[in-house]
Specification:
Elements: E1 7-12, H1 13-20, E2 27-28, H2 31-46, E3 51-57, E4 63-64, H3 66-79, E5 88-94, H4 98-111, E6 114-120, E7 123-128, H5 132-144, E8 146-147, H6 152-155, H7 159-170, E9 174-176, E10 183-185, H8 186-193
Parallel strand pairs: 1-3, 2-4, 3-5, 5-6
Antiparallel strand pairs: 6-7, 8-10, 9-10
């Protein structure tokens, strides 16, 4: 039995825009466009298993406005937050460059959300609202890639950071295996599963 009961899904937003929206191909500039793309992503998620890891690739999107960032990033994360009734989904947003970053940060902060973003090839960041303890805990798991349950007390010496680790699991920016109890950085899971 695997330690990673996640179905990987790769979502190329640029390609979705071309297929689902009759507008400028690489521009996400209206709420209707963002909603259409989010619905296409939701359709792909509905065909997957109960738990998914989704790599949402924004690399081919040249313009992303606030309303589309709200639809494609914030509402997607909200729909799959624990307790929302939707399937259990973890997201990594690839290709988040300077033209996208401000819009994504603003909508995440407005909704009190967090997201893992690849801002340069191989460089992952935590975007959105987070405490200092959450930032420390996320960085520890991100640097190591995998943290065993037995290592937590040694790696995260203060109780606030250990509690923050559990909060990050609940916020779906770190995956804790229900099988082994190990904590996985989403960036490493993307590399491993995709």
């Amino acid at each position: 039995m695997t330690d990673l009961p996640l179905d990987p899904i790769a979502i190329d937003v640029g390609s979705l825009v071309q297929r689902t929206v009759a507008s400028l191909y690489s521009h996400l500039v209206t709420r209707q466009t963002g909603r259409a793309v989010r619905m296409a992503i939701e359709s792909q998620l509905s065909e997957a298993g109960r738990s998914t890891l989704s790599l949402v690739d924004l690399s081919e999107v040249t313009i992303l406005d606030f309303s589309c960032a709200d639809e494609v990033v914030a509402k997607l994360i909200q729909a799959h937050a624990p307790g929302q009734g939707a399937r259990d989904a973890f997201f990594v947003f690839r290709g988040v460059t300077e033209p996208h970053r401000d819009q994504i940060e603003v909508v995440l902060e407005r909704h009190g959300l967090l997201a893992v973003a690849e801002t340069e090839p191989g460089r992952f960041e935590l975007l959105g609202i987070r405490s200092d303890a959450e930032a420390r805990a996320w960085s520890t798991v991100e640097e190591r890639g995998l943290v065993g349950h037995e290592e937590v007390d040694t790696l995260l010496e203060d109780g606030e950071a250990r509690q923050a680790l559990e909060t990050l699991v609940g916020r779906h920016v770190i995956f804790r295996s229900p099988i082994s109890g190990r904590y996985h950085a989403l960036s490493r899971l993307v590399d491993r599963l995709m």
